[in-house]
Design a protein that fits this description.
The protein has 69 residues and is mainly α. It contains three helices and two strands, in the order ββααα. Strands 1-2 form a two-stranded antiparallel ribbon.
Length: 69
């Protein structure tokens, strides 16, 4: 079981367990795609930062529990 902690991509953001789980699942999916394509580099998988900035962050800004923090 995962607990709430620092966001896997944006470590300045404290997130609850559900957000952490969904984000970590996305990061692992992106990592698996990189591995399938032969990219074995360390760090965040390709596309993770873009996904966070373009998809997840705008949704979080509309979420009252994160918007007010």
């Amino acid at each position: 079981m995962r607990v709430g902690r620092q966001h896997p991509i944006a470590n300045w953001l404290r997130c609850d367990a559900n957000l952490y789980n969904s984000t970590m699942d996305q990061v692992l999916r992106l990592r698996d795609e990189d591995l399938k394509n032969g990219d074995h580099s360390s760090g965040l998988p390709s596309g993770a930062e873009e996904w966070f900035i373009n998809e997840q962050l705008p949704n979080l800004l509309n979420n009252p529990s994160y918007r007010n923090n």
